[in-house]
Amino acid sequence: MNQETLILGIETSCDETAASVIKNGTSIESNVVASQINSHKRFGGVVPEVASRHHVEQITMVVEKAMKEADIDFTDLDGIAVTQGPGLVGALLVGVNAAKALSFAHGLPLIPVHHITGHIYANRLVDKMTFPLIALVVSGGHTELIYMQEHGHYQIIGKTRDDAAGESYDKVARTLGLSYPGGPAIDQMAQKSQQPVDFPKPMLHDESFDFSFSGVKSSVINQVHNAEQRGKDLSTEDIAGGFQQSVIDVLVSKTIRAAKSFQAKQIIVAGGVAANEGLRQSLLSTCELENIQCSIPPIHLCTDNAAMIGAAGTIGYLKGHRADMALNAQPGLSIERF
Ligand code: KG4
Ligand code: ZN
After folding, report:
1. How far is the CA of 205 from the centre of ligand 2 (A)?
2. CA nearest ligand 1 atom 2, residue
3. Could you tell me if the CB of 273 is within 6 A of ligand 1?
4. Which is the closest atom of ligand 1 to the Cα of 13?
């Protein structure tokens, strides 16, 4: 890259309103995230209408702040990248419309971004991506193993057949009476566990690269309900510890097997569940034993943010991906057809 590429990234697919300026796809010039978690907490999950309203209220300020912190003007930008999907349609629409308006007003290219490619490219903000690679995508809505031959090329080689990993964390947390979002709460509890409860490890020895998390989730829920009915005391720490161990063992074992069978030069981890301390430790130590290079972004880049959208958008920009004023939010956008 001879010339500097400056991209404004915008992300509103779920419950964070975010904008960021990224230089050359690797350097964060600004990264502003307005989280709505406190508004959704009392409902135990994200309420789509509440999310859309917050995005509308926040988006202008968040973009202005990102531009100010980067200390640039719109004339300095090369393009505006925005999450087109997947996500909540009403939430996505706010970002898409803001990006369209800014692109039209300033005559800047508009670059549509798939949210999961954003999570994957969060890694490029901290580490070099070495191809071919295997990306383990673990978020609230997705659990996938993706093979990447080169920049901007995504092949799904395995996916969950039911719940996403993050979704199962959130549901188990709710059963244990922990607050939303459940992942961080279970992660902390699990670290205090002395005798983790033994839960099933679904599809651990299955030949495919697919996952299934609804069985282990139901097993936790059943044990908790049975104990409640019998008035038996259960250790929340040990339930959390056992559940986390099951999920991690399956994720780590399948990711390593995928890397070996696709002769990947690197494993990268993407999505909110990549913030999980147990998963990070287990994957890093297994990769070290197996002599496979492993990259996991710092925690603030694992959960939803716009820096990752700017990073993925830079690849889209350089590949010539452009959208026009007809761009629409697509809640079920596929990564392979992107
Ligand atoms: O990627 P993300 O921020 O949003 C989506 O695109 O879905 O992921 C959110 C998910 C939630 O299910 C949340 O519970 C989970 O990531 N999560 C965690 C941790 N931090 C967030 N799961 C396990 N351990 C964590 N430390
Ligand atoms: Zn996400």
Report:
1. 28
2. 272
3. yes
4. 6
Q: What is the pTM of this model?
A: 0.95
Domain boundaries, the chain: 6-121+302-318, 130-296
CATH 3.30.420.40 assigned to domain 6-121+302-318? The reply is yes
- Cβ of 278 closer than 6 Å to ligand 1, yes or no, is no
Kindly provide the residue ranges of all beta strands, DSSP E only, lying in 143-191, ordered along the sequence. 143-148, 155-159
Contacts of 92 (CB under 8 A, 6+ apart): 12, 13, 83, 84, 85, 329, 330, 331
Whether residue 1 has pLDDT greater than 60: no
Task: Kindly state if the Cβ of 140 falls inside 6 Å of ligand 1.
Answer: yes
- At residue 226, the pLDDT reads 93
For a mutational test of ligand 1's pocket, the pick from 37, 83, 171, 303, i.e. the residue with the most ligand atoms closer than 8 A to its C-beta, is 303
Residue having the nearest C-alpha atom to atom 19 of ligand 1: 183
pLDDT tens-digit profile of 35-87? Answer: 888 888 888 888 899 999 999 999 999 999 999 999 999 999 999 999 999 99
- List residues bridging with 158 in a β-sheet: 145
Residue nearest to atom 7 of ligand 1 (CA): 140
Contact 118 CB / ligand 1 (< 6 Å) = no
Among positive and negative, which fits the CA dihedral 172, 55, 35, 281? positive
Where are the strands (E) in 67-162, listed by range?
Answer: 79-85, 110-114, 133-138, 143-148, 155-159
Structure tokens given for 45 = 């999950």
pLDDT of residue 42: 81
pLDDT at 179: 86
The pLDDT of residue 123 is 98
Residue of minimum CA distance from atom 1 in ligand 1:
272
pLDDT tens digits, 173-213? 999 999 888 999 999 999 999 999 999 999 999 999 999 99
CATH-assigned architecture of domain 130-296: 2-Layer Sandwich (3.30)
Averaged pLDDT for residues 296-312: 97
Distance CA 134, CA 255 (A): 8
